[in-house]
Amino acid sequence: MPTRVALVTATQLPRADGDLPILVSSFARRGIDAQVVPWECTTTNWSEFDAAIIRSTWNYVEHFPAFCAWLEATARVTQLVNPLPLLRWNLHKGYLVELADAGIPVVPTHVLRAGDDPDWPALFKHFGDLVVKPAVSAGSFATIRVMRGDIATVTAHHLEHVTRDFLVQPLLHSVSTHGERNMVHLGGVFSHAIYKGPRWSGDHEQSRGVVTAQADELHLAARVLEFVASKGLGNAAYARVDVARDANDHAVLMELEIVEPSLYLECAPEHARWLVDAVCADLPSASA
Q1: Does 275 score more than 80 pLDDT?
Q2: Residue 286 belongs to some domain of the structure
């Protein structure tokens, strides 16, 4: 039987996933049938696929318990890409604290657990202007900036989402001037970097094309991925390391995306085969 893989998306997307047709074509060149399938599709027999590759499942935040149950069930009948232990670890952005504790430069992060009573004056004093966002989030969901001292706004926002864990971070003003660098890695190899401007709740994507990553940004990305690999949670066929500059112009990690990041393959379509190769390396049914 020919190898079949599912490129897992969602039934409704806020924008088209430009990576999907590129991946379908790249798998086809390896003789592999890649089909685009929504994770919510109740009639799909996931065991018929040799792998289910998580791609644009961007609505999972709104259906988080169902999505987590789907991940567990699907991993029992086929191979998930990325591996389930990696996905579990990366779904909650509290991983930033773990990375910081390991000595990796990370935007300072305070985790508010659901039900916590935050000391907002102390957080404003410590961080200045704030970024406040859910610890489980995608596409800037419920992510806001709050000017120093605006306790009314941040309290109202937190109460609106009081059942969620939240991250509280300083607002890095360089994100508005220098932008973030979204560094795409495929098969463990750096592929390309994308400029990304600030994006708040309700905003559209602010990605603006390929940029050259600086040496310290590449070094930081390598450190992050080396740390993750050392955890023994499986190999990441794809990852995106999002980096910004702090007030001292040092590279700091903003987020590590191993679940459903946009990979911007239209900027490096020839590199899609690196992801395909990484998937095939773990599939006995795939020809070399």
Answers
A1: yes
A2: no
Report the domain count for the chain: 3
Q: Which domain holds residue 127?
A: 110-170
Residue 240 known to be catalytic: yes
Q: Which of 29, 113, 208, 266 is catalytic?
A: 208
C-alpha closest to that of 243 among 218, 212, 261 = 218
**29 is a catalytic site residue:** no
pTM above 0.85, yes or no: yes
Task: Check residue 284 and give its pLDDT.
Answer: 78
CA-to-CA separations, 264 to 134, 160, 167, in angstroms, rounded: 24, 33, 26
Active site residue 148: no
Is the domain of 73 the same as that of 210?
A: no
pLDDT for 206 equals 57
187, 12, 5, 188: which is closest to 80 by C-alpha?
A: 5
Amino acid at 63: H
Q: Identify whether the C-beta of residue 137 lies closer than 8 Å to the C-beta of residue 93.
A: yes
Instruction: Examine the pLDDT at 118 and tell me if it is beyond 90.
Output: yes
Nearest 5°: phi and psi at 65? -60, -40
Choosing from 240, 245, 255, 260, which is the catalytic residue? Answer: 240
